[in-house]
Design a protein that fits this description.
Largest sheet: 7 strands, parallel
Number of helices: 9
Shape: globular
Structural class: alpha/beta
Strand content: 15-25%
Order of helices and strands: EHEHEHEHEHEEHEHEHH
Distance between the termini: 45 Å
């Protein structure tokens, strides 16, 4: 896909990976629509894009609400006339053991991380199929393939995104529309601070390798230009997926050791 002139809609764009995606797509000449709950940050982002000669639409969006997601997609199409790329990026995490995490936390996580992705896919697919082209990129996580101790609630939502995208990818064969997942490792964003706050922790505690939001955003942009089923911005993490498939007990031992070193268990 040629990104110059294309229309890209991004959820969770007020900070982190979403914000960096918006800047990276705009730098390549894409027209962008950005959605999130924090309109002040979105307006600042949109102003930055416009100041550089780009086009940007900012819209308040809670992806847990289906009507808002549908309205966001309609607004992007209404402004630009089409939709070429949808990046379902909005999400957050909590930390806690399976037994200690409150049921309400599971429900809210699933509503935002998973159902928000479902709503986005359902809104975009008919439009893209009619166009005969488009790319849906669902931002999952490496923990969607291999959960870590005290991260089960979050990892379950990421695994759900992967399964959804696998099914969608095959359903869209022959339509010109692609569905992809991106699997970052820990990312240097406010994600850790939000996770700590939602979990009642005093401070954020990074666990495992970390990468920059810009690096992940650049991987997402490349995926939009040349769609691939799965993208691993931190390439060694693919090895964990393979090892877990053939020797999950070894990965259990490794993850338990790492969790103890980080004070997680």
């Amino acid at each position: 896909m040629i990104l110059a002139g294309s229309v890209v809609a991004i959820t969770g764009a007020s900070a982190g990976i979403g914000r960096e995606c918006a800047l990276a797509f705009a730098a390549r000449g894409a027209r962008i629509a950005v959605g999130a709950r924090r309109m002040d940050l979105l307006e600042e982002l949109a102003a930055t894009v416009r100041a550089s000669g780009g086009e940007a639409l900012a819209m308040s969006l809670d992806v847990a609400e289906r009507d808002q997601v549908e309205a966001f997609v309609r607004a992007a199409i209404g402004r630009y006339g089409r939709l070429d790329v949808l990046v379902n990026n909005a999400g957050y995490g909590v930390r806690g053991t399976v037994a200690a995490t409150p049921p309400e936390a599971y429900e809210r996580l699933m509503r935002v991380n998973y159902m928000g992705t479902v709503f986005g896919c359902r809104a975009a697919v008919p439009v893209m199929v009619r166009q005969g082209s488009g790319v849906i990129i669902n931002v999952s996580s490496i923990v969607g393939h291999r959960a870590l101790p005290t991260g089960g609630a979050y990892a379950a939502t990421k695994a759900a995104q992967i399964s959804l995208t696998e099914a969608l990818r095959v359903e869209l064969r022959g339509t010109g529309v692609h569905a992809c997942t991106v699997h970052p490792v820990g990312t240097e964003t406010e994600f850790g601070d939000v996770q700590a706050r939602e979990s009642g922790d005093a401070v954020a505690k990074p666990f495992g390798p970390q990468q920059s939001a810009r690096l992940v955003a650049e991987a997402i942009v490349r995926c939009a230009g040349r769609p691939r089923p799965e993208v691993y911005p931190y390439w060694p993490s693919r090895g964990i997926v393979w090892l877990n498939a053939v020797a999950p007990g070894i990965v259990d031992w490794l993850s338990a050791r790492a969790a103890r070193s980080a004070g997680r268990i």
